[in-house]
Amino acid sequence: MFIRPMLALAAALSASLPVHAAEVPYPAGYRAWTHVKSMAILPGHALYEGFGGLHHIYANAKALAGYQSGRFKDGSVIVFDLLEADTSGNALSEGKRKIVGVMHRDAKRYAATGGWGFEGFAAGDPKVRAVGNQAKTACFDCHAPQAARGYVFSSWRE
Amino acid sequence: MFIRPMLALAAALSASLPVHAAEVPYPAGYRAWTHVKSMAILPGHALYEGFGGLHHIYANAKALAGYQSGRFKDGSVIVFDLLEADTSGNALSEGKRKIVGVMHRDAKRYAATGGWGFEGFAAGDPKVRAVGNQAKTACFDCHAPQAARGYVFSSWRE
Fold first, then answer.
1. Which of A9, A105, A151, B88 has a Cα at 20 to 30 A from A15?
2. Each residue of B60-82: b (16+ CB within 10 Å) or e?
3. Does the pTM of the predicted model rise above 0.80?
4. pLDDT tens series, chain A, 158 aa
5. What is the ipTM of this complex?
6. Are A42 and B92 within 8 A, CB to CB?
7. Residue at B69 is within a domain
8. Containing domain of residue A34, as a range?
9. In this complex, which of B40, B93, B157 lies closest to A91 when CB atoms are compared?
C-alpha cells in the first residue's frame, strides 16, 4: 500500500508550502512604483468608515501598461496606500498608514474574483492580512461593476 | 584691434546658447519618479493664494538619495506638482494642474539661491516659466530657513 508514504509525503510538502496557495503577496517595494493618483475620503462620504483618509494609488510596470492599454496582464499589481488624513490648520496632511490594499493580477489563480487577487495589509504590516479569504465580499463585489475597465476604479492621468 | 571680431564671435556664440544660461530645465518624465509625499493646502491657509490645492512631491534618484542621506548632490531634482483640489461630495479629488514647481540642484550654477535652481511651469507647460529670474524672492527666501535640511521642506517617509 502506498497510502502511508503518500500521506507522509503530502505532509512534508504542505509544511514547505504557504498555508493559502492563493495568498496575495505583500507588494514589496511599491513605494518606488509609479504614483497614479491620490484622493481623500472625508467624513460624510459613504465609504468613510472603511476608506476614510488620504489614499495614493501606485502601479508596478505591468499595471502601468495596463492603465494605458486597457488590458492588465498577469503580474500587474496595483496598490491602494491609505493613510490617515490630518485636516487641522486648513491643510490636509498625511498621517499614519491605515492599510495597504493590493490588487494582484493572475487570471487563473484568482479567476473567482475577476482575475484579481485582493488583500489588505493592516497598517502596512506584511504579516497582518485584513482580507484573507473574504476577497469576494470585502473587495470584489464593489469592483465588479468596473468589469469593462478591468475591475479597476482608478485611471492614469499625466 | 580685436574688439569687432570678438563682438561678432560673442554674438555668434550667444545665438547658439539658451537666452538664460542658468534656466532650470523642465523635469521631463517626473511622473515616473518616486512619489515622496502629498499634502493639500485648503482655504484659510496662509499659503492658499499661491499653493492652494493638492500637491505631490516627486524625487529623481539622486534627490531620493539626498532625502535619505541628508545631502543633495548636483543633479538632484525635486518636483512640487500642484493640482486643483475638488472638495465636493465629502472627498478631496484631483483637478487640473496648476503648476509644476521644480528645485534643481547645482551648487555652483545656482549658488545665489542655496545651490538650488527654482522654477515653476504654469499648468505644467514646459514653455511657460512662472518664476524666471525671480527665484530669490519667489522661492528661495521662504526656503532659506530650511538651510539645515538642504533648503528642502519635505521629508521622505516609508
1. A105
2. beebbebbeeeebeeebbbbbbb
3. yes
4. 455 555 555 555 544 444 455 899 999 999 999 999 999 999 999 999 999 999 999 999 999 999 999 999 999 999 999 999 999 999 999 999 999 999 999 999 999 999 999 999 999 999 999 999 999 999 999 999 999 999 999 999 99
5. 0.87
6. yes
7. yes
8. 3-148
9. B40
